């Protein structure tokens, strides 16, 4: 599912779109985390959840920054 999401974002927006790059990076991070999780390990899953929360905060900041930058460039 993550691989399909990565391909869809890359195809639709390409690597030059700022938001697409952020989305692709988050998908790649999620893919790495899911691939490294041992089965039925609650501690590992909770650690991954903490990392996901940090990623969401980072993505939120990136979206806000890009949005603010785009608004400043509009006449």
UniProtKB/TrEMBL annotation:
**Superkingdom of the source?**
Bacteria
The protein, known as: Uncharacterized protein
């Amino acid at each position: 599912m993550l691989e399909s999401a990565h391909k869809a974002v890359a195809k639709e927006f390409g690597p030059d779109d700022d938001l697409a790059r952020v989305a692709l990076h988050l998908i790649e991070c999620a893919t790495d985390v899911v691939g490294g999780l041992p089965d039925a390990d609650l501690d590992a899953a909770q650690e991954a959840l903490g990392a996901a929360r940090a990623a969401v905060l980072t993505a939120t900041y990136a979206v806000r920054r890009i949005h603010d930058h785009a608004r400043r460039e509009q006449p």
